[in-house]
Amino acid sequence: MAEESTEALPSVDELMQRIADNYEALPRQLKNVATYIEQNRSSVMVDRTSDIAASCGVHPSAVVRFAQRFGFSGFSDLQAVFKQAYTGQGSSSPSYQQRIRKLIDEKPGALSGGSVAREFISASRGALEELEAGLDDRQFDAAVKMLQHAENIYVIGVRRSFPVASYIVYALQHTPKRVHLVSGFGGMYREQIRSVKKGDVVIAISFAPYGKETQYCLRVAHHHQAKTLVITDSQLSPLARYATTQLYVKEGSAFAFRSLTSTICLCQALFIALAYKLELNVEESQDTGGYDD
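User: That's the sequence. What structure does it adopt?
Assistant: Structure tokens below.
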């Protein structure tokens, strides 16, 4: 009977899609729980209800109500979905979040600089493995195709995402595309994005708590019928509703500091895939020519 019950469980992706579809209708407290689950998929199966409630700023009963909202008798039944996904795949190695927590629990007190560096590198490596495993090839290919046919490419990313936005603009400028960084220098986000039009693509990079400036630029792009590529961390991100195509990336975190390793890697891969496509087009139309890498 236990095996039949396990097989009847939805997949994590199916569950998260249901949550995303119903997110806007959820009460505020249940939205907090939904966001926590989306951002902590690989640890939800071992998290205690009280710990989740404390992280979300809600009563433990709200966590149970959340599970019941999506057809589970209690939160442990919802956790079974994640246990099936993360322990039923034959992988005995703990997630990178669990490794970090284990290190902190086992080695309290001051750590050397080298220990901090190695733990941060380990977290980044784990996140890269998660990025590779979870990459949506169809969405990625759609993003490349969209950029390939764009008349202009606008890139927006603020605060922690600004270095990534700056990098992808630098990289894309090695292609024949017209690329614009929406930097907001002088507070001029509105002025820099107002020329976006149908046929253009806006790349928006943002992670929780999601930049208001980035959301504004996406709304403008949507209003002017430009296509949008959103790079974010969750299906529940407010940016997702304006996305033509979206790519998800979860960064490794150590000592309450999130890496940018996976996001930079994803953007580099996006540029290389686009440059490859553009160069193929050049070769198909002429024997020589192209652009420098």
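The mean pLDDT is 79.
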